[in-house]
Design goal:
With about 210 residues, this protein is α+β, with helices and mostly antiparallel strands. It has a single domain, classed as Alpha-D-Glucose-1,6-Bisphosphate, Chain A, domain 4, CATH 3.30.530. About 25% of the residues lie in helices and about 35% in strands. It contains five helices and nine strands; from the N terminus they run E-H-H-E-H-H-E-E-E-E-E-E-E-H. Strand 7 and strand 8 form a beta hairpin.
Amino acid sequence: MGSISDNQNELVDLSRIHQKKVREFVRAFGLHSETGFQAMGPVCHEQHTTDFYREHCKTFLIKRNINEVWGIYKTINPKEAWRGGMVSFGLQYSRKKNAVTYQEDPYEGMESGQVIILNLKLLGGIFNMAVAHEITEVNDATKSFRLCYVQGGASKGSQYISLQRTPEDFTEVTHHTYYKGSSFFRDIILYPIFHSIAITEFHGNIAAMR
């Protein structure tokens, strides 16, 4: 885990980031220091602004008890959670701890204030891009959490992930996204396709954990 040095105020070690686009993202937004992450605040969907957003909703059935599944969501290492043919984990910054977590680091659990930067490999790797979102809510009582996009990214909005127990004592996971970007083509055509692939990989990794 990396933290700010009293001498040089360096926060991110680029040599520990595996993806080129994530390294470029860090450079472009000045995330070498704490002030860079402070400037990159979340741009969340709020209920009174729903009419200005597009929606995407997908449900997943995990054939395990809800308490067990919720525990996995809260404790799975981001490297394992965001791992698939399209998505890979770059790094995570904790606002509460003012520290960075890399792929090789242990994970202390999900909490609000964690900024996660991912690499998306699109069209079979022809095109790559980095995206960032922040965990802004974690609710143990309702077994739900919220991810928000961050300032400077291609999209604004929130992703709401909630768990419900089924009559068979399985877990139904609902991933409800409100989003908007600057490109009509991207929002209507590209976003739903790639977003669906990304979240399917994410929740599939949760279901596969033992």
